[in-house]
Amino acid sequence: MTPLLTRRTLLQGALGAAALPLVGRAMGASANATGNGNGTEPRIALVIGNGAYRAAPLKNPPGDAAAVATALRGLGYDVTLRQDTRLPDLIESLREFSMRAPKASVRMLFYAGHGVQVKGRNYLVPIDADPLTEEDIQRQSADVGEFVDRLSAIRTGINIVVLDACRVNPFAGGVIVGPDGRRLKFRGATPGGLATLDAPVGTLVAFSTAPNGVALDGASGKHSVYARHLLANLPTPGLQIEQLFKRVRIGVAEDTGRVQVPWESSSLTADFCFKSNDKGRCG
Fold first, then answer.
1. What crossing angle do the helices spanning 4-15 and 87-100 adopt, rounded to 10°?
2. Model confidence over 213-270: pLDDT tens digits?
């Protein structure tokens, strides 16, 4: 297996001298123009669903990702779908997306799977993560904040980051049982859920539950409760994005008895909807 430091150096070299680190510190999002779901500029999406974890597998994410990818393609997005990504695949997917991002008017990331916070920063966890310490999580995962920061350098278009990634933290409580039966104790407990992430100008970040809260993998059915409500609302003609996520929030809260209440951070400066109404507009 390629040593982590060597792999990281190679990936950074592929991006060029100005690239931000990707392992433990991914790339970023922001802009201040708009799209209405029917524009001529490219609209791109990266859709990731990770479920085949060794320590704490999840049933729904690969199917959630496939369904979201299909829905977005139907809305005219150029979609890259990745399922059960290992660290090199996760990093390369984020790198490739960020390279394409400046040419797109709408840029969307949907991630379903394990996500954790360490020292106030949020990380997307690949299926091959095998941390012994909190520092290992940072080295073996992708930093969402850095991904958002990278996209924030783009001054046109909008960025949408949707994280159905707050499921039960497999590393919570400071102790996990590894695949070989070892009990691994961290020097500090990693809180459940994800930390607050402020969206830069031109960006909306949607979380499947409130900061520090835990989202639910669907006990029955094909999809998580959050993905199910997102899929139901994405194709609604003329529905402003803020209203779309409000509908998702209401539906998830009702279905879970308010155990799970989705949350968004938005700094969008223009109207946007995934699908225009019959007049070609939002609203």
1. 10
2. 666 666 567 899 999 999 999 999 999 999 999 999 999 999 888 888 898 999 998 8
Rounded mean pLDDT of the chain?
78
Three-state SS string across the chain, please?
CCCHHHHHHHHHHHHCCCCCCCECCCCCCCCCCCCCCCCCCCEEEEEEECCCCCCCCCCCHHHHHHHHHHHHHHCCCEEEEEECCCHHHHHHHHHHHHHHHHHCCEEEEEEECEEEEECCEEEECCCCCCCCCHHHHHHHCEEHHHHHHHHHCCCCCEEEEEEECECCCCCECCEEECCCCCEEECCCCECCCCCCCCCCCCEEEEECCCCCCCCCCCCCCCCCHHHHHHHHHCCCCCCEHHHHHHHHHHHHHHHCCCCCCCEEEECCCCCCECCCCCCCCCC
- Domains, the chain, ordered by start: 20-266 (3.40.50.1460)
